[in-house]
Design brief:
Layout lengths: L6 E2 L9 H7 L9 H18 L6 E6 L2 H12 L5 E6 L2 H12 L3 E6 L8 H9 L7 E7 L1 E2 L4 E2 L2 H10 L3 E5 L11 H4 L3 E5 L10 E6 L1 H8 L12 H12 L11 H14 L4 H21 L16 E5 L8 H7 L2 E2 L1 E2 L9 E5 L8 H17 L6 H12 L6
Parallel strand pairs: 1-12, 3-4, 3-5, 5-8, 8-9
Antiparallel strand pairs: 2-10, 6-7, 9-10, 11-14, 13-14
Helix pairs in contact: 1-10, 2-9, 2-10, 11-14, 12-13, 13-14
The structure holds 4'-deoxy-4'-aminopyridoxal-5'-phosphate.
4'-deoxy-4'-aminopyridoxal-5'-phosphate binds next to helix 3.
């Protein structure tokens, strides 16, 4: 598509709304200017609503990515020699494991086959078999694993953790603001994400909300403090000051991203947060209907495991992973496989954030995938796929 920008349908970074883009592109302000203080303070307040968190929970906005947010949770909550239970659903759970191990934490894993999630019973069994002398400190899980498009249900895991006195930490990088998560109602302790996914911003912010219990765990830590940039205690006075609309400094914030964050969160909260979850459920269902109309199978083994933020689609026999290049030739940026065990057998398409509000973008994506598959000789009915998605999405605004 010479001359026109391809549509960014990765599972992050994603398309952003015109209003977010305008705010991001504004002339820079000082980090202690009233404009930044107001955007920072109101973003912190709105995060509690998007996360469905208690008033006592503490939001953090830090320059960095999802990996920085994960590192922060690990570094603040676990001390060397402690034990953690990891519910492992793929590539990003493996990353958590490595982080925990680097921190000197003993990790016990409950794993599932690729495309599946461990049964809650298996997690419960693992918790019950812990030695009394060395109890688990925390449970970690990935809400949506971006390498497989598999979504687990955090609710029973958070409940199990609470019942047994563990902290629960959920990586919501590919889920927060799109998949249902009720931090207060479920009693979760940390829910973390990054700006470039369903929050609908360019990359560059690590975002997390931390329960009072988890903060207390950091302040009663016995071993050496975490690395300075990762330490919640360094950031806490800054977050509190901004929320009270006072200037404060620890390390220079990503000012233009924070201006954009205020707009992005406001868009998410235009109506109740639960409606944003429904919007993504509709977008996800529409995309799945399109894949099914093209006879394409998903990596998640069962329908209820398929996330609404991205589709991980298996390649039909004979189609090469270079399909991603073909999709780009039809004007859409998609992603290749990521999970090491199945990398060359599938591709991924994101449908979260602003794109989930734009049926025309979703339809254009279906058309590009269909066209690229046809170029590789796959017989399919593209019109039926578009029709299947459209009938779920209704008539959206033109692109
Ligand atoms: N966790 C999940 C579930 C992710 O999808 C990603 C990014 N794709 C990360 C963590 C890491 O985020 P980042 O690339 O911003 O460091």
């Amino acid at each position: 598509m010479p001359g026109s920008r391809p549509l960014l349908m990765l599972p992050g970074p994603v398309e952003i709304s015109p209003a977010v883009r305008r705010r991001f592109g504004e002339a820079p302000l000082g980090h202690l200017s009233p404009g930044v203080i107001e955007a920072f303070g109101s973003s912190l307040e709105m995060m509690r609503r998007v996360w469905m968190a208690e008033d006592s929970a503490q939001p953090f906005i830090i320059a960095g990515g999802g990996t920085a947010a994960m590192d922060m949770a690990v570094a603040n909550l676990l001390e060397p020699g402690e034990r953690a239970l990891l519910v492992n659903t793929g590539f990003f759970s493996d990353r958590l494991k490595e982080m925990l191990q680097r921190q000197g934490v003993e990790v016990v894993e409950v794993r599932a086959a690729v495309g599946d999630v461990p049964a809650t019973d298996a997690v419960q069994d693992a918790l019950e078999s812990e030695p009394k002398s060395r109890p688990f400190k925390a449970l970690f899980a990935t809400h949506v694993d971006t390498s497989t498009g598999v979504r687990l249900n955090p609710r029973p895991l958070a409940r199990l953790a609470r019942e047994r006195g563990l902290l629960s930490v959920f990586d919501g990088v590919c889920a927060t603001g799109a998949e249902p998560f009720d931090m207060a109602g479920w009693g979760a302790d940390v829910y973390l994400t990054a700006s470039q996914k369903a929050i609908g911003l360019p990359p560059g912010l690590a975002l997390m909300v931390v329960s009072a219990r988890a903060l207390e765990s950091r302040s009663s830590r016995r071993s050496a403090a975490p690395p300075m940039y990762l330490d919640w205690q360094e950031w806490l006075p800054v977050m509190r000051a901004y929320e009270e609309r006072r200037p404060a400094y620890f390390s220079t914030p990503a000012t233009n991203l924070i201006l954009a964050l205020e707009v992005g969160l406001r868009e998410i909260l235009e109506s109740e947060i639960r409606n944003r979850f429904v919007l993504h459920e509709i977008a996800g269902r529409a995309m799945r209907a399109a894949w099914s109309a093209m006879d394409l199978k998903l990596v998640p083994l069962r329908d209820e495991l398929a996330s609404n933020t991205l589709s991980a689609v298996r390649l039909p026999d004979g189609v090469k992973p270079t399909i991603v290049r073909g999709i780009l030739e039809h004007g859409v940026v998609a992603a290749g496989g990521l999970h090491p065990e199945i990398r060359d057998s599938y591709f991924r398409v994101g449908h979260m954030g602003y794109a989930a509000t734009q049926p025309a973008m979703l339809i254009r994506t279906v058309q590009a995938v269909a066209a690229a598959l046809r170029d590789q000789g796959v017989q399919l009915n593209a019109e039926a796929a578009v029709e299947a998605a459209s009938s779920i999405l209704g008539d959206g605004p033109a692109l």
